[in-house]
Amino acid sequence: MDPLSPRVTRAAVWTGTGVDIRSVAIPELREGETLVRVRLATVCGSDLHTVRGRRTAPCPSVLGHEAVGDVLAAGPHAPVAVGQRVVWSVTVGCGDCPRCRSGRTAKCLSVRKIGHEPFDGDWPLSGAYAEHVVLPAGGCVVAVPAGLPDAVAAPAACATATVMAALEPAGDLAGRRVLVCGAGMLGVTAAAACADAGAAVSITDVDARRVELARCFGGAPDHGGPVDVAVDFSGSSAAVGDALARLDVGGILVLAGSVMPSPPVPVDPETVVRRWLTVTGVHNYEPRHLHAAIDFLNRTRHTYPWASVVADPIPFDAVADALTSAPAGKLRASVAP
Predict the structure, then answer these.
(1) List of residues 6+ apart from 52 with CB closer than 8 A
(2) Whole-number Å distance between alpha carbons of 130 and 111
(3) CATH architecture type of domain 8-157+305-336
(4) Average of pLDDT values for 133-138?
(5) Among 194, 183, 179, 162, residue whose Cα is nearest residue 288
(6) Domain-wise residue ranges, the chain
């Protein structure tokens, strides 16, 4: 490690009952590893679910997987250079198991995940709610263009890249009618991506204020009717059932929000056959989607008000507040370690 690099950092450790700011030794970097100084971390809904007990996660752990930071040090054969501003993928695959070899590294049989690893294991600095994070060998790291603000770049590591993955099965969207279910960060991002691709986009949400916000990102309030593509980020069985019923002939339904148990959705096989429907699921994303996310955000940074949906960062010592209360009128809280 560079002799000028810090030897100790601070991390916000989720204990199961609260957040404990602890001093943590920074390890010597091994081959392919990278030490990043976190500039800004945004708070993903999955971390809120963890803190509220709706989602299981290793405990204790350092949460946080949407972030942007500066490379301070790199082990041999690391994929980036010291001084680069970067984002990084949530998942790290082994590269050798059958799933990795088939192109689904996010579903690696031994997958490891940023912000989802035990603090008392061999990778304590795995989460972005810390002053520094250690990125392991084998992960995808992408340089951030100079003009892209931190608040715009950070969500690329989860929300934007997941949207890129979710829209991939839909194919060419130009001229197609697209329904987006859920107007949170992913849904609003999907509306923008679909509109940018030339689709006519409608969006639904139980919160009318979010639907109104989506207008700024190319999404119009939904008024029913048949659609060619539906993408669900809500995780609501009712929304999924409605979307499935509205698919026109050749329609495609992509499920990306159903990440917790929910009531089953009835499916009529004859309807699927006669309408030539496709139903598919997407969970996490591949390295190409993170590259596409940064490219998309950079290309549309003057088209859509990306920074407006991220709250001003709170101090690192107040990270617990970001995990317990949503910022008014914003889709993402943020923390500046």
Answers:
(1) none
(2) 22
(3) Alpha-Beta Complex (3.90)
(4) 96
(5) 162
(6) 8-157+305-336, 163-281
